[in-house]
Write a structure and sequence with these properties.
By secondary structure, this protein is α/β, with parallel strands linked by helices. Helices cover 57% and strands 7% of the residues. The longest helix is centred in the C-terminal third of the chain and has 23 residues. It is flat and about 70 Å long.
Length: 326
């Protein structure tokens, strides 16, 4: 009986790679992978792709074919793949990987009916420090309080970047039994901090051109949803600093917020440019942008439109609440 195919879908590439590696490892030993594993790009000629999917295993009980970038297939090639899936007699264990697919189209509906779907979505912002702490613990170097949060602040929300930074910090710690916050601050690559401060400074100053320029710079090294995550996290920090300032609780702000003193000062300075009533609109806009990207809208255009809206002013020059629409 043919094995049910698998679709791994989601924009978190690092998580998708882990899922694929696990699925392959469950089916083939390392020795068997040399003979019975194909990793293909979905943009290859569809006839050759279908031939690989129909190729029986060599000297083994099973053959696995991984097809990446399914979202890049031409529509006619998608139709050919649908017919292959509906036939249902492939001799291979097929694993398809896509960042996103139109969930109203025939290809996804066919996967929904005939395949096992595994989501590879970004981890929620509130869960990232725990994910980092678990990585440190798995490496035999538990994190001291504040260390995992500091790494997320400095390195951003991409799992691949965070995993790389964890490995680097573990090597730096050496024989010491624990990762301290000072270790993170000493060696972590600050890929999130400076770029996001530039972007949120532009947003706070209603500088749409500067915000879009900063966005383009960040997109050279970060995925759109990672950028959105970083901006949302920064605004959550700004809101927290704004709330503490409103209560007169500004002493020991780095300790209260669990941030490096430099980061805490920057966030506090940015918070001075906002009013409490602006934040609901900001977060509504961020949520709408997240939903638009995840349902197939062009990510760069979604982010550009978001940042322009957040910078809009009325014609009289009076600042509108961020996130408000005319």
């Amino acid at each position: 009986m043919a094995e049910r195919p698998t679709l791994v879908i989601g924009e978190e590439d690092y998580l998708a790679d882990q899922i694929v590696a696990r699925l392959v490892g469950e089916r083939l030993s390392p020795d068997e992978q040399r003979m019975n594993l194909d990793v293909l790009d979905a943009t290859m000629p569809v006839g050759e792709l279908l031939t690989r999917l129909d190729t029986a295993p060599f000297f083994g009980p099973q053959r696995v074919v991984v097809v990446r970038r399914v979202e890049a297939m031409r529509e006619s090639d998608q139709e050919a793949l649908v017919r292959h899936l509906e036939r249902g007699d492939s001799p291979t264990a097929a694993i398809f990987v896509a960042r996103e697919l139109d969930r109203r189209r025939r290809l996804f509906l066919t996967f929904k009916k005939l395949a096992t779907i595994v989501e590879a979505r970004p981890i929620a912002a509130r869960d990232l420090p725990r994910w980092v702490a678990d990585r440190f613990a798995a490496a035999g170097k538990p994190a001291a309080p504040g260390a995992a949060d500091a790494l997320v602040t400095l390195a951003g929300g991409g799992l691949r970047d965070l995993a790389h930074e964890v490995d680097k910090i573990v090597a730096y710690v050496g024989d010491r039994p624990q990762v301290r916050r000072q270790d993170v601050e000493a060696v972590a690559t600050r890929i999130g901090e400076a770029s996001i401060f530039t972007l949120t400074d532009a947003l706070g100053g209603r500088d749409a051109r500067g915000a879009v320029r900063a966005l383009h710079d960040i997109l050279a090294t970060h995925e759109p949803l990672q950028v959105l995550f970083m901006v949302a996290r920064q605004f959550r920090l700004i809101l927290r600093a704004h709330t503490l300032a409103g209560r007169g609780e500004v002493r020991n702000l780095p300790e209260r917020m669990g941030l490096h003193p430099y980061v805490a000062r920057k966030v506090a300075d940015q918070a001075k440019g906002y009013r409490a009533g602006q934040f609901p609109g900001i977060f509504a806009e961020l949520e709408a942008a997240d939903r638009a990207i995840k349902t197939g809208s062009p990510p760069r255009l979604v982010l550009e439109a978001l940042f322009v809206r957040l910078c809009e002013s009325d014609r009289a020059g009076v600042r509108r609440p961020l996130g408000a629409r005319s």
